[in-house]
Amino acid sequence: MIVSAWHDGHGSYGLRVLEAEVSLNFRPEWETVSVYLPDEKEAALAPLTASFWEGSPELRSPRIKAFLIRNGMVPWERQRPPYFELVPLGEGVFRLEWIVKPTGQPNLPLD
């Protein structure tokens, strides 16, 4: 599934998932998911908060923020965040992969 980098404007960073992908790839019984980042061996843990299920489907983690900064993706042009492929590996485990971001593509919508 395609995800975009996300920033709340106040210091939190993460990955935004399309709402249509939430019910297909995430389970309400999961409290957290593990995300293997391209340049790390250990998975980052991201909690699935109530807001994740209620219209703000972002995987938020300080390690995701560090990954974005470390790879020169912060800051990004307004409404032009980096995009990635988030590959489900099963049971709440995902692998984040690089993709080539098409130029001129706007933010992913929430629906």
Q: Which whole number gives the mean pLDDT?
A: 91
So how many helices? 3
The tally of strands reads 7
Strand order of the largest sheet: 4-3-7-6-1-2-5
Q: Class by helix and strand content?
A: alpha+beta
The geometry reads as globular
N→C terminal distance: 14 Å
Low-confidence stretches: none
Number of domains as seen in the coordinates:
1
Largest sheet: 7 strands, mixed
Radius of gyration: 13 Å
Beta-strand content: 25-35%
Q: Could you state the order of secondary-structure elements as H and E?
A: EEHEEHEHEE
Helix proportion: 10-25%
Oligomer: single chain
Walk me through this protein's architecture.
The chain has helices spanning 19-25, 50-53, 62-70; strands spanning 2-7, 13-17, 32-36, 44-47, 58-60, 83-90, 93-98. The chain is α+β, with helices and mostly antiparallel strands. The model has no long low-confidence stretch (mean pLDDT 91).
Short description:
The protein is an alpha+beta fold and 111 residues long.
What is this structure's SSE topology?
Layout: E1 2-7, E2 13-17, H1 19-25, E3 32-36, E4 44-47, H2 50-53, E5 58-60, H3 62-70, E6 83-90, E7 93-98
Parallel strand pairs: 3-7
Antiparallel strand pairs: 1-2, 1-6, 2-5, 3-4, 6-7
